[in-house]
Amino acid sequence: MGRPVKRTTKPDTKLTRAEQARATRRRIIAAATESFVAHGYGATLLDQVAERAGVAVQTVYFHFGNKRTLLKEAMDIAAVGDDDPVPLLERPWLRQIQQEPDPRRIITLWVATGRTIVERVAPLMRVVRGATATDAVLAAQWHTNQSQTRTAHAFLAGLLAARDALKPGMTVEEAGDVAFVIGNVETYLQFSDVCGWTFDQWQERTAALLAAALLRS
Predict the structure, then answer these.
(1) Do 176 and 150 form a contact (C-beta atoms < 8 A)?
(2) Does residue 115 share a domain with residue 51?
(3) Who is most buried in 28, 78, 123, 169, counting CB within 10 A?
(4) Which of 80, 109, 128 is a domain's end point?
(5) Among residues 85, 69, 83, which one has the least CA distance to residue 26?
(6) Is residue 146 domain-shared with residue 66, that is, in the same domain?
(7) Contacts of 131 by beta carbon, 8 Å cutoff, 6+ apart
(8) Any bridge partners for residue 166, and if so which?
(9) Which residue from 112, 116, 137, 127 is spatially nearest to 75, judged by alpha carbons?
(10) 184 and 157 share one domain
(11) Domain span at residue 133?
(12) Angle at the Cα of 40 (from 34 to 41), degrees rounded to 5?
């Protein structure tokens, strides 16, 4: 019998350079996310990320420059669920919510979508929160994430106000702030890490809290 033919794995030559680069970035971000969550920000080294992703460390530096930028990119992708250049508030799920006439159903859909985002983002938010005391750049990143979340909940408040569903005397600004405090990831981390809530409990109870706090009887 002849020798078995040795097979080698070659890059898919059908991919364009841009597609290859995007695939490489995805592998690096996935590897970095695993490392950040498992080891924390300080203990994660870029050469370890590179090894996990199957690339040279120079490739990591080429695409991201430094570890802070890599964490930010991982956070951004976790927030929207992919690397498509479409902002969170321009996603198809939001159009569905915008078309919903029932205020309580709006809150239910909002929190259901929020759950999928929280499931992706919460592990990395723990990483960022743990590093804010010693890293000013990551502290600023935490502030930016909170500001973006507040903007999103202001949008929710606007949808409810447009249906004349807010409690009497409650302004859109007040409703947005209340929604932000109840529904943001920081509050989830308290409910999860301190109170021991599961995702199912968080989803059900957060929807109930938002409805009770925001909607007219």
Answers:
(1) yes
(2) no
(3) 28
(4) 80
(5) 83
(6) no
(7) 40, 41, 42, 138
(8) 215
(9) 127
(10) yes
(11) 88-214
(12) 100
Q: Which residue has the tokens 């964490």?
A: 71
Cα(153)–Cα(110) distance, integer angstroms: 10
Cβ atoms of 193 and 162 closer than 8 Å: no
- For residue 202, give both structure tokens: 């968080």
pTM exceeding 0.85: no
Q: Which residue has the higher pLDDT, 134 or 59?
A: 59
Domain total of the chain: 2
pLDDT band at 31 (very low <50, low <70, confident <90, very high): very high
Angle (CA) 134-138-139 rounded to 5° is: 75
pLDDT in tens, 50-74: 999 999 999 999 999 999 999 999 9
Q: Containing H/E element for 9?
A: none
Q: Encode pLDDT of 177-190 as tens digits.
A: 999 999 999 999 99
Token digits for 96? Answer: 């569905």
Alpha-carbon distance of 182 to 58, in angstroms, equals 42
Structure tokens at 81: 């669920």
In angstroms, the CA 189 to CA 206 distance is 13
Q: Which amino acid, 147? A: S
Task: Please write the tens of the pLDDT for every residue from 196-206.
Answer: 999 999 999 99
